[in-house]
Amino acid sequence: MHYMVDVTSRLQQVLQLIERGDYFTINRPRQFGKTTMLSAIARELRGEYIIIDSSFEGADDTLFSTQESFASKIFDFWAQSVEFYDNELSQLLKELQK
């Protein structure tokens, strides 16, 4: 059987947290709608905020080996994530890496 849960009220709560500048965590087991919630948040905030939709899945361990390595590579990683839909932002992120 398949079920669909209406997350509209929870989405509104998260958007209020964001508007207030509060931190929050989305923490659930597999298949509980974390990615769906993040996609809904991004849809709601696009145009008001710069959304960098990226995943560290598949990133090799060198990205996380040291703080220096992470700091030097993260902007390029983000630039690649937005390259197809916002080339100007991608170029800015690449410049910040330098």
The Rg value, from CA coordinates, equals 16 Å
- End-to-end C-alpha gap: 51 Å
Our estimate of the beta-strand percent is under 5%
| Mean pLDDT over the full residue set | 86
Helical proportion? 40-55%
Main sheet, how many strands, which sense, barrel?
A: none
Low-confidence runs of at least 5 consecutive residues: none
- Which structural class do the helices and strands define? mainly alpha
The run of helices and strands is HHHH
Give the oligomeric state: single chain
Overall 3D form: globular
**Tally of separate helices:** 4
Beta-strand segment tally: 0
Set down the secondary structure blueprint.
Layout: H1 8-20, H2 34-45, H3 67-82, H4 87-97
Helix pairs in contact: 3-4
Explain what the structure shows:
There is one protein chain. With 98 residues, the protein is mainly alpha-helical. The chain contains four helices and no strands. It has helices spanning 8-20, 34-45, 67-82, 87-97. The radius of gyration is 16 Å and the shape is globular. The model has no long low-confidence stretch (mean pLDDT 86).
List keywords for this structure.
98 residues, mainly alpha, 4 helices, 0% strand, globular
Outline:
By secondary structure, the protein is mainly alpha-helical.
